[in-house]
Design a protein that fits this description.
single chain, about 450 residues, alpha/beta, Aldehyde Dehydrogenase, Chain A, domain 1, Aldehyde Dehydrogenase, Chain A, domain 2, 2 domains, seven-stranded mixed beta sheet, six-stranded mixed beta sheet, 15 helices, 18 strands, about 40% helix, globular, binds nicotinamide-adenine-dinucleotide, NAD, Ald_DH_CS_CYS, aldehyde dehydrogenase (NAD+) activity, oxidoreductase
Length: about 450
């Protein structure tokens, strides 16, 4: 079916007001939940075909996320959708003021391939919860997961409400010509700019969930053992193909050697290997080639081996990397961890400040002053102190970037708000109307107004 006619049908359907009823939203959230559960095997098989992502990783980083999101909205929908009463200023007495969360209408979600289910379905779930229609365009790069989502959604939901549109650049370009009431995009900063430009043509509001080089800092005041374990996990999860993975590491010089040893220990302990369930493949040959070219043989501290046939790149640590090295120029998005050292903590923060604002940042320390400087001096989308990646699992925290790493955010109530318009309504009584604001004006009226305002 032509995508334009599907969007048209969604417009007509939205106008019937059906998607606004809370019972309608809940019914479809429940339905999606039961479909995810009954199709778990299909979802596992598809993602394994795409990049050998294990059942364990798929459940913990994708399926459980989606189910948690649905449960969150099922539980909180009534409170989220309820008009919020706010106070009314003096000049509007006697009156009352409320903010209504108004569904936006027809929304578009464009997903990325690296967590294909979570990054496609979580925004769609937020769109449903907020009372919208939605077209989802998952990433064609993870082709099997795209097909699995299209099968689940298109065979079970009316297309005038929810629809998965399969395709790549051409199809996305076609979609971007159409007028949507919200575009939610997850992907690279480069494509984010294309989306933003296209959205501007229709003045469509956007959420752009983009990428960047997310630093991890380890100071001499850190619990080094814990820091090493959590950095290795966050970096090599999904073979480094995680938007919030620590991209590079800044370690205080006095603990550098000791810390690198610990990283090595945990990489070995976690048993990453091409045929193990602990490690995913690199998504495609293009990324495999791009990543292997970034390995500077002279700087390998650990790893550096790869196997083209299996698109496997060993977890690799590159030591004493220079800011001018190729690996420090762009987001890595793979299992290569460049390490550089610092003598002075503030100079490490300054170095981060000189780059674009990252999607995430991580600090490992038990020193209060260092923590304060980290949160106050550098700008980043979100992050952790003494952990990596886990901030995005807390629904009470908004998830999104800043500057070139993104615009807007979602998760929990923030996802609901991203797909709603905050509509302000002031209701006045129809009695007791003073004449003060009405012409004809006078000095006396002005002096009263000065007192009132
Ligand atoms: P991408 O930008 O190449 O693709 C994302 C989507 O855009 C896909 O659906 C694709 O079909 C579409 N697309 C690609 N080129 C296009 C074009 N020229 N015109 C229109 N549409 C186009 O990103 P990716 O490779 O799927 O994902 C990797 C990037 O995404 C990394 O930079 C990563 O950091 C970022 N990312 C961010 C988040 C986040 O939540 N902030 C999550 C995952 C990935």
């Amino acid at each position: 079916m032509e995508i334009e006619s599907i969007l048209l049908k969604q417009r007509v359907f939205f106008a019937t007001q059906q998607t606004k009823s809370l019972s309608f939203r809940k019914m479809y959230l429940e339905k999606l939940k039961s479909l995810i559960i009954s199709n778990e095997t299909l979802l596992y098989e598809a993602i394994y075909k795409d990049f050998r992502k294990s059942k364990f990783d798929t459940y913990t980083t994708e399926i459980s996320f989606i189910l948690k999101d649905i449960d969150y909205y099922l539980k909180n929908l009534k409170a989220l959708a309820k008009p919020k009463k706010v106070s009314t200023n003096m000049v509007n007495q006697l009156g009352s003021s409320k903010i209504y969360s108004d569904p936006l209408g027809c929304t578009l979600v464009i997903g990325a391939w690296n967590y294909p289910y979570q990054l496609s379905l979580s925004p769609m779930i937020a769109a449903i919860a907020a009372g919208n229609c939605c077209i989802l365009k998952p990433s064609e790069i993870a082709e099997n997961t795209m097909k699995a989502m299209s099968q689940i959604i298109n065979e079970n939901f009316p297309s005038e409400y929810l629809y998965v549109y399969e395709g790549g650049i051409d199809e996305t370009t076609e979609l971007l010509r159409l007028k949507f009431d919200k575009i939610f995009f997850t992907g690279s900063t480069k494509v984010g700019k294309i989306i933003y430009k296209a959205a501007a043509e229709h003045l469509a509001p956007v959420v752009l969930e983009l990428g960047g080089k997310s630093p991890a800092i380890v100071t001499q005041h850190a619990n080094l053992e814990i820091a090493a374990k959590r950095i290795v996990w966050g970096k090599f999860l999904n073979a480094g193909q995680t938007c919030v993975a620590p991209d590079y590491l800044l370690v205080e010089e006095s603990v550098q050697e000791q810390f690198l040893e610990m990283l090595r220990k945990y990489i070995k302990e976690f048993q990453y290997s091409p045929d193990s369930d602990q490690y995913t493949q690199i998504i495609n040959q293009r990324n495999f080639q791009r990543l292997t070219k970034l390995i500077d043989q002279k700087k390998i501290y650990f790893g550096g081996n790869f196997d083209e046939e299996n698109r496997f790149i060993e977890p690799t640590i590159l030591n004493n990397v220079d800011w001018k090295d190729e690996i420090m120029q762009e987001e890595i998005f793979g299992p290569l961890l460049p390490v550089t050292s610092f003598k002075n903590y503030n100079s490490a923060l300054k170095a981060i400040l000189e780059l674009e604002k990252p999607l995430a940042a991580y600090l490992f320390t038990n020193n209060t002053e260092e923590k304060e400087h980290f949160t106050q001096k550098i700008s980043f989308g979100g992050g952790c102190i003494n952990d990596t990646v886990m901030h995005l699992s807390n629904d009470h925290l908004p998830f999104g970037g800043v500057g070139t790493s993104g615009i807007g955010n979602y998760h929990g109530k923030f996802g609901f708000e991203a797909f709603s318009h905050q509509k302000s309504v002031l209701e006045k009584t129809t009695w007791g109307e003073p004449n003060i604001k009405y012409p004809p004006y006078s000095e006396k009226k002005l002096s009263w107004i000065k007192k009132l305002l």
